[in-house]
Amino acid sequence: MPEHNDFNDYLPEPKRQDYSVEIPADQPPLNLNRVPSGNDPMGRIEQRGMVYRRLARGQAPWWLLIAGWVVFGGLALGLLKMALAGSILSWVLFALSLLPLLIMLQGTLAKASPGR
Predict the structure, then answer these.
(1) Which of 29, 39, 47, 97 could form a disulfide with 76 if both were Cys (CB 3.0 to 4.6 A apart)?
(2) What is the dihedral of CA 106, 110, 112, 114, to 10 degrees?
(3) Mean pLDDT of 2-28
(4) CA neighbours within 13 Å on the CB side: how many for 27?
(5) CB 116 within 8 A of CB 110
């Protein structure tokens, strides 16, 4: 008759389990500079935001800054002439045309700063 403490004799033999840990390969970092698709409306808005952000930070080349001043400045001068004629709508349009000029001014100051 077995002793009271030998109850393990009636259990099956425990199988040895080998544990293995799989270490995944290094994953490439996510591309945070992905260009959104311009085929959908939200992609277009995101692309315009990227362009204005680069302009405002002074990351655009000089020729692009000068061309922006010519285009947006010419538009603002034309709307100023219309606004001086006396229409309230022309004044609103003139005020809206100053927004790209502010972005161009910020980009030009960032590009011309001595820390660049």
Answers:
(1) 97
(2) 150
(3) 75
(4) 5
(5) yes
DSSP calls for 41-84? HHHHHHHHHHHHHHHHTT-S-HHHHHHHHHHHHHHHHHHHHHHH
Q: Residue 106 corresponds to which tokens in the numbers above?
A: 């910020």
d(CA 68, CA 103): 10
Give 20-65 pLDDT, tens digit per residue. Answer: 888 888 887 777 777 788 888 998 999 888 888 888 888 889 999 9
Q: Compute the distance between CA of residue 94 and CA of residue 99 in angstroms, rounded to an integer.
A: 9
- Which regions of 1-116 does DSSP assign to beta strands (E)? none
